[in-house]
Structures are given as C-alpha cells and as structure tokens.
Structure prediction request, 133 residues.
Amino acid sequence: MKKKISIIGLLLLLAGCTAQEPLELIVTFHATGCAGFNENFSEVDYTPSGLSIITNIISDKPCYTLIKAELTRNENDLTIYFTLDEDRGDCIQCTGLQTFIYEINGPEINRSGINVKVITLLEDQEVNHTFTT
Prediction:
C-alpha cells in the first residue's frame, strides 16, 4: 500500500512541477477606423514581465466594440481570442481596421520563438492572424 501511495505522490509532484504558470492578458487599447493597408500584422516588444504587442486586424467595417479578450497557452503556442460586437449606430462604409494594444505577462514569455495565433471573432466572421515573437 505504501508503494502505491509513494508512486501517486511522485506523479502528483511531477505534474505540479511541469504545469505552466498562468499568463496574464491585459488589453490596454482598442481602436477602430478605416484601414490604409490590406494585411493583418503585429509588432512585438519585449518587456521585463512579458510581451507588449500591437495587432492590426482588417475587418469588413470599422464599427465593432471589444467585449472579451482571452488567452490560452500550450507550451510555446499562444492563442488570443478577441470577441467583438457590432456597433448598431451609423457606420462609415470602408474596409475596417481593429487595432489592439495588449500585454501578455508571465514567466518565460519575454523571448523570441513564441508562436502566436490571434483569432478575432466579428459577430458572424472569424479573422485569423499568426506570427512568431
């Protein structure tokens, strides 16, 4: 019986040691407008606590409001979900732009080689953008 308890204890210890600490996603800015370019892009800056990122996403129109931002991690792969809701007021008719400025903070994240996938949910459409830090 003691052997079974020791093996279970060892497995729990190993699982605890290999689990990654959670990351923190902070969206500091979201702006909309008409796009002056036709491709999604991101710029990354390294900070002592993580990453500072600017992501520009092309949309069908500019009139969206950010309602939720989420982050998942799997080893060196991050997925960021931006969920937006359409503004119901008057909307300028142009190719839209969604600009997000955000930080991702946590251990071992302020380095190159992190694969990032940004999924932007614009009501009935999904825009995907990937980059590597």
